[in-house]
TrEMBL record:
The lineage of its organism: Bacteria, Bacillati, Bacillota, Bacilli, Bacillales. Responsible for synthesis of pseudouridine from uracil. Keywords: Isomerase. It comes from the Bacteria. This is Pseudouridine synthase. The active site is at residue 141. PANTHER family: MITOCHONDRIAL RNA PSEUDOURIDINE SYNTHASE, PSEUDOURIDINE SYNTHASE. Pfam families: PseudoU_synth_2 (PF00849). Belongs to the pseudouridine synthase RluA family. Residues 94-247 form the Pseudouridine synthase RsuA/RluA-like domain. It comes from Niallia nealsonii. The keyword Isomerase applies. The keyword Isomerase applies. It is an enzyme of class 5 (isomerase).
Length: 306
């Protein structure tokens, strides 16, 4: 863990042993993943201090150095805040994890769209007295529910983007799929591309992007011919779980776009759990998103068992 402290608009980072000897500029480039533009602004506006003195960016860090970054200054948001009832699973000065309801978009597709989860989360942050340009780190399909991760400032946004690319953010999904699986667990490794005959549908395509889905059968509902499964992803393609399961003859229940029967009012897919190491403090974060469908889709399943 890294010891941190907030003082007003500043964050204090107490140099851990593993940072000793690293040149300050290299720390911002390779550990904090600040962009060139961010580093330039930090330098020009003297937003980084070492032991309360203007930082020398070319010097290595010493033991007991305190790095002070002007991180929490007000940033005008381009997202129109909209009041909505949102379920916060975790929040600190740097990030927010929200339990997304189904039938709502993760983010606006056009500027006039103000009814998305990003708009609602922006309202929540503003009502807490914080003027922030928040950013979604990943997304869920409109009709999929569960964990969504947001960054509250640009620096942590860069760090979380890197973690997502490097598969350092683990997401576990719960799904109900048609049929009985021949094996209790497996991996689907098939590239996914756009379906040129449909505006939103994706398909398995040898010219598509690499996509890997792991699944595990948790239980079977033999009477309904459904299987309850968990899924995890090595990649994050649009509709990945839906396309992959459909490709092996087990479409999601309710997912009429990919061959599922309309036994539910949406595809039976829920982002149930998210795990990551906090990019600033290095604490472990583990969040579970309770089911929120009424009537229930995943009745009788203990989400905390995954």
């Amino acid at each position: 863990m890294i010891k941190t402290e907030r003082k007003g608009d500043w964050i204090l980072l107490y140099t851990p042993e593993k940072w000793v000897g690293i040149v300050l500029e290299d720390l911002f480039k390779t550990v904090l993943f600040a962009s060139k533009k961010q580093i330039h602004l930090y330098k020009m506006e003297k937003k980084v201090l070492i032991n309360n003195k203007p930082a020398n960016w070319n010097l290595p860090l010493q033991k007991e150095d305190v790095i002070k970054i002007h991180l929490f200054h007000p940033v005008p948001s381009t997202i129109i805040p909209t009041f909505m009832d949102i379920d916060i699973l975790y929040e600190d000065d740097h990030l927010i994890i929200v339990n997304k309801k189904p039938f709502i978009d993760t983010h606006p597709n056009v500027a006039e769209d103000t009814a998305t989860l990003l708009n609602g989360t922006a309202f929540h942050v503003l009502m807490n007295g914080e003027e922030r340009q928040i950013k979604h780190i990943h997304r869920l399909d409109r009709d999929t529910s569960g964990c969504i991760l947001f960054a509250k400032h640009e620096l942590v946004g860069n760090m979380l983007d890197y973690m997502l690319r490097e598969r350092k953010i683990k997401r576990t999904y719960i799904a109900l799929a048609h049929g009985s699986f021949p094996a209790k667990k497996g991996t689907i490794n098939k590239p996914i591309g756009r379906d040129r005959h449909h505006a939103t549908r994706r398909r398995i395509s040898q010219n598509g992007k690499n996509a890997i889905t792991h699944y595990k059968v948790i239980a079977e509902q033999k009477k309904e011919s459904l299987s309850l499964i968990t899924c995890s992803l090595d990649t994050g393609r649009t509709h990945q779980i839906r396309v992959h399961l459909s490709s092996i003859g087990h479409p999601l229940a309710g997912d009429t776009l990919y061959g599922g029967k309309p036994i539910f009012n949406r595809q039976a897919l829920h982002a149930a759990k998210i795990e990551l190491i906090h990019p600033i403090t290095e604490e472990k974060i583990e969040c579970y998103a309770p089911f929120i469908d009424n009537p229930a889709i995943f009745s009788g399943f203990d989400i905390y068992s995954i």
